[in-house]
Amino acid sequence: MSEDFSERKSSVVKKLSLMEDIKNVREKELMDREKERKEENEHRAKIMAIKEKELQIQAAMKKQELQAQRYIKEMEIKAKEREMERMAKEREREMDMQILNADTSTMSEKRRALHEIACEKIIAKWFT
Hints:
Blueprint (H helix, E strand, L loop, with lengths): L1 H99 L8 H18 L2
């Protein structure tokens, strides 16, 4: 009987030991899975941060590109405006030259005096 009891006791101890081992293995598996989930979440967070940074860089590059295009357009408009002003001044000078070169011999005294005044104003305008 004592042997029976010893065997049963030994069997129960083995079962308890086995159950404890199983419990420890399960706890370790749970801890490992939790650690993996945590690492995956950290990895996803890093990837999201990288993607966010990439989007910010792309947005900054697009903004810079648009600013450059706007600057180029402004320069083109200013160049056209300067060209228009230059052409207007050139036409004005041509008209002034026509006035200066007008035949004064056929003009009356009054018109000749007005012509001289106009010529003086034109010449003064050129030198100011």
